[in-house]
Amino acid sequence: MNILKDLNFNHKKTLIRVDYNVPLNNEFQVTDNTRILAARPTIEKILNDGGSVILMSHLGRPKNKEEKFSLRHIIAELEKVMKQKINFVDDCIGDKVAKAVAGLNDGEILLLENLRYYPEEKKGDENFAKALAELGADYYINDAFGTAHRAHASTSVIARFFDKKHKAAGKLLEKEIHSIRKALDEGQKPVTAIIGGAKVSSKIGVIENLINKVDNLIIVGGMAFTFLKALGNNIGNSIVEDDKLELARRIIKEAKENGVSLILPVDLVIADKFSNDAQTKIVDALNIPDGWQGLDIGPETQKLIDQVIQNSKTIIWNGPAGVFEFDKFATGTEQIGLSIGRASENGAFSLVGGGDSVAAVKKLGLTDKISYISTGGGALLEMLEGKTLPGIAALSE
Ligand code: AMP
Predict the structure, then answer these.
(1) Domains (ranges, CATH) in the chain?
(2) Is 376 a catalytic residue?
């Protein structure tokens, strides 16, 4: 797979698949420009080489050509970030777009309209991919890590229409792959993964892959209750997946056989209802009274996790430790963020990904301390599962 530094873009037109699926407020202003910033180094490299750039992305999940999902809304923010004028064309395939591409001068940027205005995009339609490939670009670059796990027309199928010398991974994609490999396959020991979130079922693949790679696997959040129940604990009314109890037992056994230390909550913040104004108590994890549910990890668990994290050289974190949307139950998640921040300051390599964990890290002002914050949700999970993502594979085929 080529990376950007293998290629020279002087006088060339380059079509870049970026992930500009950014949140907008009611006035259609960008409220978080992380993804726009993340793709900037790739665009800059091509412009600095003396080439021009055509940007394509999806935004949201439009049913038809709904105006609220127009990429027009991000022009102002993109101009601010790139410090230059952005040309825009209100379609992404066809003569009008090809003409705009033909008229593009070196140093210029052209933004295309939302790819998902065409249902063919998500279907991975070959003709649609071909139409994108035939807009007149010399190179195809994929820098959309957030959608690299999808075999969509613009993320994967399009790569068939560019030979190996005319396609490459963008800088963001390269950095994501490098960081995930550094943590997962080349991580300095001890390696610790902290996996949280609501359900085991959404992270089975991740847990099963990690169990062969890490020294410590910490399971927190709602999914911990399936494990606690599998061990015979009374979990009261906590969230549980009864059809995954057998799986949890198998994972516990596998961890033992692999010499992996599987760490579950030892105490919990329990609540009498799922609400920020619930009554709460701290109890040990063995016995949650009926009618009560665990909504965060307790102080002893936070201490235990902190010890493990401080003794780790590599740390991977995905998923909250509690219902952090309610302030009352956000402490566990925040403490994990702070622990990882401290360990990173002391030289550990840390990789944090997933919307909730990243939000916690940002809220705590820890962004600069964490070694790498992934821009991927589903894509990161699939990488952690050990899968080859179609958007990445297509660049080497
Ligand atoms: P996920 O999308 O799988 O990473 O799950 C994130 C969600 O898990 C968040 O919305 C949390 O509120 C939720 N969650 C975390 N801990 C618990 C818990 N103990 N009980 C119920 N939901 C939880």
Answers:
(1) 4-173 (3.40.50.1260), 187-384 (3.40.50.1260)
(2) no
Stated pTM of the model: 0.92
Q: Which residues line ligand 1 (CB under 6 A)?
A: 197-199, 202, 221-222, 239, 294-295, 319-320, 322-323, 325, 354, 356
249 is catalytic: no
Q: Does residue 378 have an active-site annotation?
A: yes
- The answer to whether 350 and 371 are in contact (CB under 8 A) is yes
Q: Which residues neighbour 283 within 8 Å (Cβ) at sequence distance 6 or greater?
A: 267, 268, 270, 289, 292, 298
Q: Whose CA is nearest to atom 4 of ligand 1?
A: 197
- Residue 250, pLDDT > 90, answer yes
Phi, psi torsion values for 79, nearest 5 degrees: -65, -40
Q: What is the mean pLDDT of residues 148-153?
A: 97
Question: Residue 114 pLDDT more than 90?
Answer: yes
Q: Give the pLDDT band of residue 355 (cuts 50, 70, 90).
A: confident
Which member of 35, 122, 167, 171 is catalytic?
Answer: 35
CB 284 within 8 Å of CB 266: yes
